[in-house]
């Protein structure tokens, strides 16, 4: 199983820490000290979880001309900030690429959804039900966020990423990863508007951030060690660690536990904020062109709820 290509989409609007200083008195220095965040992206009017997912999909397909949209035989979408819970983000992507009668699956396990989505692909591949999958992760956090919340209102940013995953290796740059029929029909008739539910109602709240912090640090470090041990690798063999982009202090804590230098970690939280389950995938897109043959990449995540996971990738 291989990640053939990855691409990200970020809205153009930038929200700096000064916005929150003007809004509720939180200083730039205080936000940096607590979170590592300097700025974040915000979806424009008319943008949402679905539109960002579609843009990321268009970009990953454009970067993979050898894989036409018509060859995609599975779509898995991950988000906890849906624009619509019935005509899901995965259906919207299917509608956009115009491929019908293929499995379309939505997953939500908070910020761990990327790895759960890829695990679903693994199951479809193992059962012989698919061979070219599209995984899309997208978060419209600012649609749900309450900026007046001085506890967590400054944490969130918007963004999306898409990955093409194949059963066989197609290119030297691919990253290796170590009965029932379902079908979507989103492009047919009035599927996109026949039945919808759009639950954008209230802001994200995080009353027990310290508990999240403690468990995120513990679980991400532990599961990273576990996956390395299972594959007879040492922590020192890790070329890049891509953690969930929740808080720079969490990343530094995990690195300290593992004994990895900071330059081995991929971090985008300083200019993107917490982009939920899209954050690690965006980090992989940022790192893609730097990867060399022989590199080992670990993606490790933790999500509210709680959920966690790790994935080991090799560039052969």
TrEMBL record:
The keyword Transferase applies. Residues 107-168 form the Beta-ketoacyl-[acyl-carrier-protein] synthase III N-terminal domain. Keywords: Acyltransferase, Transferase. CDD domains: KAS_III. The keyword Transferase applies. Residues 228-313 form the Beta-ketoacyl-[acyl-carrier-protein] synthase III C-terminal domain. PANTHER family: 3-OXOACYL-[ACYL-CARRIER-PROTEIN] SYNTHASE 3 (PTHR34069), BETA-KETOACYL-[ACYL-CARRIER-PROTEIN] SYNTHASE III (PTHR34069:SF2). This is 3-oxoacyl-[acyl-carrier-protein] synthase 3. The lineage of its organism: Bacteria, Pseudomonadati, Bacteroidota, Cytophagia, Cytophagales.
